[in-house]
Amino acid sequence: MPIGPSIAEIAALADDPARANMLAALMDGRALTASELAYTAGVTPQTASGHLAKLSQGGLLALAKQGRHRYYRLASPLVGRMLESIMAVVAIEAPPRHRPRSPREDALCFARTCYDHLAGRLGVAITEALVEGRHLVLGEDGGEVTEEGAALLRERVGIDIAAVAQGRRRAFCRPCLDWSERRPHIAGALGAALAERCFALGWIVRLRDTRAVAITTAGRPALRAAFGVDLR
Amino acid sequence: MPIGPSIAEIAALADDPARANMLAALMDGRALTASELAYTAGVTPQTASGHLAKLSQGGLLALAKQGRHRYYRLASPLVGRMLESIMAVVAIEAPPRHRPRSPREDALCFARTCYDHLAGRLGVAITEALVEGRHLVLGEDGGEVTEEGAALLRERVGIDIAAVAQGRRRAFCRPCLDWSERRPHIAGALGAALAERCFALGWIVRLRDTRAVAITTAGRPALRAAFGVDLR
DNA sequence: GCGGCGCTTCGGCGGGCGCCGAAACGTCCC
DNA sequence: GGGACGTTTCGGCGCCCGCCGAAGCGCCGC
Questions:
Q1: Given B45, B79, B113, which residue is the final one in a domain?
Q2: Same domain? B117 vs B48
Q3: Do A7 and B1 touch (CB under 8 A)?
Q4: How far apart (Å, rounded) are the C-alpha atoms in residues A138 and A128?
Q5: What is the distance between the alpha carbons of residues B118 and B139, in angstroms, rounded to a whole number?
Q6: One domain, residues B68 and B135
Q7: Residue B189 has pLDDT above 70, yes or no
Q8: Which residues of chain A are within 8 Å of residue B93 when distances are taken between CB atoms?
Q9: How many Å does it take to go from CA B4 to C1' C7?
Q10: Which of A20, A37, A198, B173 has its CA 20 to 30 A from that of B204?
């Protein structure tokens, strides 16, 4: 039972730019329609349809019919993890070519959700600020919050570290290599809690039809006060 | 900057059965020669050479020249993580087809190393025995050892949980979906420590030219005594 | 029921890539 | 230095697959 063919089968589903774009667009867990995905991927609807059929049949996508629309989403968090790990490999070897970026891309690079946590310059900045201030120790495969960090997160963000770590059924804290910044940001239960609090406190808001998020006018000073993060 | 093309580029490197076989063979971190990889992949040396060139140029493999041999290995642990996550996706949707297996494949399914920890029936059996006995609580993204578990590992295997958890620079314990068993086994620092102790205690030995490991005559009763694991 | 829309299926074109045989290059050993 | 061996390069064949235009199917709203 050579395992190669099975791996190749799955990898082949992501080896096409159009399909990869679709998968990337679905990485935040939302469900998108076939046309939205066609547009995102930059192909005609009929071509997209073929791709979506392959991805569904391959088990990467789940389909929900709703009226005349068809909503596709990632079939499992494991699929998202796979894409995340592919992006991590992309990030490490990324040739330092600087390509021109559109405003839309700029927004994504500035701040976005990666599943349930924050990525982009904002996500990385918060992460590095916490590490810099000895509030967080981050390794290549995990991380832990220091006592000072626990105090800071409780007092300034309203996160109860003990509650977040509760049971440890999911990883408490793990680094997620940011494809745009090529540096790690915080994922896992802690990453989710951080993002959740930032939304709840009104520091950041989601932008329409994208994974990008923006810092609110109230959020800017709040983020500076909490983490010392002040992005332009 | 659509990220799709970059993802596709990496995925394309694994979308060929021959290349996927090569990558899978390198998953334990060893370095193999071009001919060994050609044989593993089931292609002629000249074909393999082309594949290896692509994988190297793509940044997935690192090359070390040694005399007239060329040793290839995974360029980074991140590459291994990527393959692991692809295998996880393979495992979840795996059609329950039972293919005939060769003795060589049987040995791999029975017990093997997955990087620095144990996989296959042995790895899964140990994991499930620990969970069953309430020595370990395993979630879908992490896990933790109970007090009873810490005592068991210290007394019977000689693992100092506190030392293993030291610093948490790498994930203490995370589940790794086993492609042959389709159930999780223990990875992370704990998984590495378990494997290391089993080798050190002489309970298991590596088999030649493969990632497979075998249980020694001394190991069989020891594994039964320590974990209640008794594989045929 | 008729038109519009979202989505899929079909068919044919074109390009890219994996494959191997043959041959060249470099290293080791006698 | 000659011969064997490990590895790579080159060239040509063949196949697979992504692409789009055209057409078909199902759901919606007037």
A1: B79
A2: no
A3: no
A4: 9
A5: 18
A6: no
A7: yes
A8: 58-59, 75
A9: 23
A10: B173
